[in-house]
Amino acid sequence: MNCEWATPQDLFDSLNKEFHFTLDPCCTIENAKCERFYTKAEDGLSQDWTGETVFMNPPYSRSEMPKWIQRAYESSLAGSKVVCLLPAKTDTRWFHDFCLKGEIRFIKGRICFGSGEGRAPFPSMVVIFNGAK
């Protein structure tokens, strides 16, 4: 099963208009949303996000998701702004440990990922970690 879901362009454009992203740390070359980006080969988890306004649509696997969300939260404490497109899994530990510390925007309906063929099999949300407070 594929755990990578390409961000719908219209959703990204709407968020980018508000936040003006500078970094996409977890993408492929084909679906990168920012001029500055990291692919799996460059391991965005191990890169420096300091001072960036980050758009993050992480891999949706059970093993990867918690690592990315923790990194997003911790990067915000160091001064970065991180906006995350995530599955709305409110029953998970990562949701309670990290997402509740950010601003949560639930997305009405199910979004279409990638080429837009069919809807996601889960609800989605945007979580915003607004930098050190």
TrEMBL record:
GO-annotated biological processes: DNA restriction-modification system
One Pfam family this sequence matches: Dam
Entry-linked InterPro entries: Dam_MeTrfase
GO molecular-function term, one example from the UniProt record: site-specific DNA-methyltransferase (adenine-specific) activity
Name recorded for this polypeptide: DNA N-6-adenine-methyltransferase
Species, as recorded: Desulfatibacillum aliphaticivorans
UniProt lineage: Bacteria, Pseudomonadati, Thermodesulfobacteriota, Desulfobacteria, Desulfobacterales
